[in-house]
Specification:
46% of the residues lie in helices and 11% in strands. It is an alpha/beta fold. The chain starts with 22 loop residues before the first helix and ends in a 12-residue tail after the last helix.
């Protein structure tokens, strides 16, 4: 069953997926377009980037750039610090080919895997509804997806939504997300399907890659919950289906991943994000991240927004190398990791830490300063024991 989005009245969507234009939102969009550059199209914020943003909620720089749709890879190149990571074209093509294989014949193999792992008490899927989700623009596609989810839930059968569009508010601005698939069960349950091209060998896959897929899927679950909250009989499953190649072949296999923990963490972190309009309002007038500007202007614009660099950013953010260089030049302790930064309290630079350890600066009553001085004393004592006393003239020291 499919309906043409152009026929009949426009579909009614739940409030959670509508973003009606108001004077405030219009002004914010204009402001973000100015920050992005007048001739620069917005870069979409996908679930992978959103999961990385949620993992570092204190970084206003990333929140603003992602919210404004700035392409951070292009910006990093213009700054002279290009990102040294990214998916190869070969891996991209291999992933697309594997996904097409999984979804071939109307998703027959995908539905078989899902029923084996998460079928529950429902009947095996014989007839599967694959609704048409085409519409104009991301807002139209999100509205069409919401309508298709409600219709499929009301029909009480199996439905496969191929690349639906979901809306999720992030720091006061809507982000549009596109999971690989969402399956509607006859009992009204919605299951996120994540298709990856890394192998699952002996029913086990790389833990780091599975963790990244779980965090990404948790974002989709949060977005689906906004629609399910206003859809009668709907429930979003917190167990997602991860489909990967089996062993060293191209045959698909699947595993169930519980994302309740990742969902809770992501939801809590997203609520901590500073709203984008607040960050934008604090910027100097005329600030822009237009890649056509000179490196000096772009550097000044980027430095006008506070960042929260950590070594983990190197694997998740295109601007990480620029931020690391600036943090190293400033002698900031965050280059040593979040745990070290947390232990050092109000000491924010390496020079301050060394001065406090040497007894040149710092309040002795401060527990951090006291711990540093104690550690320095223990280190000096250990070095003295290793070195030993000075050897007598003409003699040797046994070690």
């Amino acid at each position: 069953m499919s309906e043409s989005p152009a026929s009949g009245p426009p579909p009614q969507t739940p409030p959670t997926t509508q973003h009606r234009a108001t004077p405030q939102t219009t002004a914010l969009r204009q402001r973000l377009a100015e920050l992005r550059g007048p001739a620069v199209a917005p870069h979409p914020l996908d679930a992978r980037a959103l999961a990385a943003l949620a993992a570092n909620p204190g970084c206003k720089r990333r929140a603003l750039l992602d919210g404004a749709g700035v392409d951070k890879a292009v910006l990093a190149t213009a700054l002279g610090s290009p990102a040294a990571f990214g998916q190869s074209q070969f891996a991209f093509m291999r992933g697309n080919a594997f996904e097409a294989k999984v979804k071939a014949d109307g998703g027959t193999e995908l539905m078989r895997l899902l029923y084996e792992r998460l079928g529950g008490g429902s009947e095996a899927p014989r007839e599967v509804l694959v609704p048409d989700l085409t519409a104009a623009g991301p807002e139209g596609r999100a509205a069409r997806t919401a309508l298709a989810l409600r219709e499929a839930t009301g029909a009480g059968g199996w439905a496969l939504l191929d690349h639906p569009m979901l809306a999720l508010e992030v720091a006061g601005s809507p982000a549009y997300l596109e999971p690989d698939a969402v399956v509607v069960h006859p009992d009204g349950r919605w299951t996120v399907v994540e298709i990856k091209s890394f192998p699952m060998i002996d029913s086990s896959a790389d833990a780091a890659k599975v963790g990244a897929a779980a965090r990404q899927s948790a974002v989709y679950v949060l977005a689906l919950e906004r629609i399910a909250a206003v859809t009668q009989g709907a429930e979003v499953g917190h167990r997602v289906l991860l489909v990967c190649p089996k062993d060293f072949s191209n045959l698909p296999t699947a595993s169930v991943v519980d994302v309740r923990k990742q969902r809770a963490v992501t939801r809590r972190q997203l609520t901590r994000l500073t709203r984008i309009e607040e960050i934008a309002a604090a910027l100097p007038e005329g600030t822009t991240f237009d890649p056509e500007r000179s490196p000096q202007e772009l550097t000044a614009a980027v430095e006008s927004v506070a960042a929260a660099y950590a070594p983990e950013c190197l694997a998740a953010c295109e601007l990480a190398f620029h931020c690391r260089a600036k943090a190293r030049a400033a002698g900031a302790v965050q280059v040593l990791g979040r745990s070290v930064r947390g232990e050092l309290g109000g000491l924010t630079t390496v020079s301050e830490v060394l001065a406090a350890a040497a007894g040149k600066e710092g309040d002795p009553a401060d527990p951090t300063v006291a711990a540093l001085r104690r550690a320095a004393a223990l280190r000096a004592e250990a070095l003295e024991r290793v070195t030993g006393p000075a050897a007598p003239e003409g003699g040797t020291v046994c070690r």
